[in-house]
Specification:
Elements: E1 8-17, E2 24-34, H1 37-46, H2 53-78, E3 88-90, E4 93-103, E5 109-116, H3 119-126, E6 130-132, H4 135-140, H5 150-157, E7 164-169, E8 172-178, E9 188-194, H6 197-206, H7 218-221, H8 227-234, H9 237-240, H10 249-252, H11 254-263, H12 269-292, E10 300-304, H13 311-321, E11 325-328, H14 339-352, H15 360-363, E12 373-375
Parallel strand pairs: 3-6, 7-10, 10-11
Antiparallel strand pairs: 1-2, 4-5, 6-12, 7-8, 8-9
Helix pairs in contact: 2-3, 6-12, 8-12, 12-13
């Protein structure tokens, strides 16, 4: 998969046995393939509302080829032949996510979402059955189309004696709350706000493009949080909105970063990065106190995604979440970078078995849905 950070493709070779709540999952190998600069630049151009359909058409096939080659490269590294692989599951690259219902041309009242990376190309190039485009069925059923990882989070992280909040900090941050001894229907999940998206945008701006992200939170650690700017960011409507809710570049993309930089134009670069980092931590903590803790007794917060490796982020979260135990995915035996790619392998398995794998309580869909589209090899 490629997330909202749009920095590259995460590919996992996963062995899944069984299905449904009896599934067992083993990660064999994980690789991350960064997008080359020209491709990443072309993808970011798609996020503009004025982007022509011509470019979306071209990039849909370009990414299909890129995803297919990433899958084949991983197979080669593992000395696995395509004929030994049962399916490729591809989330794709989100370029627009508009799940809120609106009146569409022709009279329909619906949300919409668009992930590209043409699955027919993946199936053609790899010769492997491909499952893709997971969000759309949930949106068609009236849901937000995300988060879709709670089913996998439940399989990987449920505990009989500990309540857990599984917090992903990717481009966008999302939480899956799993009460101790929970049944699947007890699980709930939602996006808390930005993850690395705003931080990355600020870092790229203040370094003139030399750096794309704040490695280990080093820039943020040398800055001071500007409380006035942080208060302005926390007033964003999305932060305080009730779940189900999902976010993307529509809320926290270039336009938001530009206004942040304008409001903070007199601040040193390190202060801007520190304040953007604090915004992610503060928005996560706010959503926990308002929506998670009243509904779920949490003993452990398990961090995953790129932001989990930012030590300044972890410190800020500890300051805001009090006595809770904060762990990394690795502390409970799951590679954090690989978790979301693993999740879509799990969802792809459910799809070919004909099992629904969305959680209507998390997405707001009217009912269970079998996710994804199946492209035969």
């Amino acid at each position: 998969m490629s997330g909202t950070s749009a920095d590259g493709v995460h590919a996992a070779l996963v062995e899944v046995s069984g299905g449904g709540l009896n599934s067992t999952v083993k990660l064999i190998r994980f690789e991350k393939t960064p997008y080359p600069p020209d491709l990443r630049h072309a993808i970011f151009a798609l996020f503009s509302p004025t982007c022509p359909g011509l470019e979306i058409c071209r990039l849909n096939f370009a990414l299909g080829h890129f995803f297919a080659e990433a899958a084949l490269d991983l197979m080669r590294r593992c000395r696995v032949r395509p004929s030994e692989v049962d399916l490729v599951a591809s989330h794709g690259q989100t370029i627009y996510h508009l799940p809120r219902r609106e009146k569409l041309p022709g009279g329909a009242n619906s949300g919409s979402t668009l992930q590209i990376g043409e699955p027919s190309v993946i199936a053609e190039v790899t010769g492997v059955l491909t499952v893709a485009d997971f969000r759309t069925r949930d949106v068609a059923a009236g849901g937000q189309g995300a988060p879709l990882v709670p089913f996998a989070d439940y399989l990987l992280f449920r505990s009989a004696d500990k309540g857990r909040a599984v917090q992903n900090i990717g481009g966008i941050a999302n939480v899956t709350a799993i009460p101790r001894g929970a049944a699947l229907d007890d699980v709930f999940a939602f996006d808390t706000g930005p993850g690395n998206m705003v931080i990355d945008g600020v870092v790229e701006a203040v370094t003139g493009g030399i750096h794309a992200f704040d490695e280990d939170g080093r820039m943020a650690s040398g800055g001071r949080v500007d409380q006035s700017l942080l208060s302005w960011m926390m007033e964003h409507d999305f932060i305080k909105a009730s779940p189900p809710k999902t976010a993307g570049r529509e809320q926290f993309g270039a336009h938001f970063v530009e206004e942040l930089l304008q409001r903070g134009r007199d601040l040193p670069p390190a202060d801007l990065v520190a304040t953007a980092t604090a915004f992610t931590a503060e928005s996560i903590a706010f959503n926990y106190h308002k929506f998670v803790f009243p509904a779920c007794s949490v003993d452990e917060v398990i961090l995953g995604g790129g932001g989990s490796y930012n030590s300044t982020m972890r410190r800020m979260l500890r300051e805001r979440l009090g006595e809770l135990t904060i762990l990394l995915h690795e502390d409970v035996g799951v590679l954090g970078d690989a978790k979301e790619a693993m999740a879509f392998a799990i969802l792809g398995n459910e799809t070919v078995l004909g099992n629904p794998s969305n959680l209507p309580r998390a997405t707001g869909a009217t009912g269970p849905a079998i996710l994804g589209k199946i492209i035969l090899p």
